[in-house]
Amino acid sequence: MSLLKCEVITAAADRKSLSINGSCVCGAIEFEAELIPGMVFNCHCSRCRKSHGAAFATQAFARRETLRFIRGKEHLREYDSTGGIRAFCSHCGSRLMNFAKDGGDYLSIALACVDSAHDAKPVADVCVNSKVDWQPLSDTIPSYPELPDDIAE
Ligand SMILES: [Zn+2]
Ligand SMILES: [Zn+2]
């Protein structure tokens, strides 16, 4: 399973969207986007863990064309990681979003950086083959050793 698939999933185009606003911890960057319902995953891969400094990263998918920076886009920096671009605030280091290297139609947004109220919530734990031992899995959502192919449709 490629990291690209883990981070930038091609999603069904006809699902209803959810408007959100997000920001980094220092507030320099603020953005808005439309989330794709049902496309929220807790990713336990080592790259998500390390780049977020957390047991896992909760990533919500959005169409890239819906991403708009309200302020601070000039503070956004990109780290060219294996399989994708990881974007963060150059001031405070907050991890905000991931893109495909080739552009792509979708991006994933760190759900923890979203400030507005929303109904999005994780539907699965993925890449749990890479999970740390000290973090128990939820017993309310399914878990997958890698990223299941049917999620990527
Ligand atoms: Zn910041
Ligand atoms: Zn990951």
TrEMBL record:
What PANTHER family does this protein's entry cite?
CENP-V_GFA DOMAIN-CONTAINING PROTEIN-RELATED, GFA DOMAIN-CONTAINING PROTEIN
- Source domain of life is Bacteria
| Keyword Lyase set for record | yes
Q: Which keywords has UniProt assigned to this entry? A: Lyase, Metal-binding, Zinc
Q: Which SUPFAM superfamilies match?
A: Mss4-like (SSF51316)
Positions of transmembrane segments = none
Q: Does the record bear Protein biosynthesis in its keywords?
A: no
Q: Which GO terms describe its molecular function?
A: carbon-sulfur lyase activity; metal ion binding
Q: What is this protein called?
A: GFA family protein
Residues of the CENP-V/GFA domain? 20-124
State the family it belongs to. Belongs to the Gfa family.
* Matches recorded under Pfam families: GFA
Q: Which Gene3D superfamilies match?
A: glutathione-dependent formaldehyde- activating enzyme (gfa)
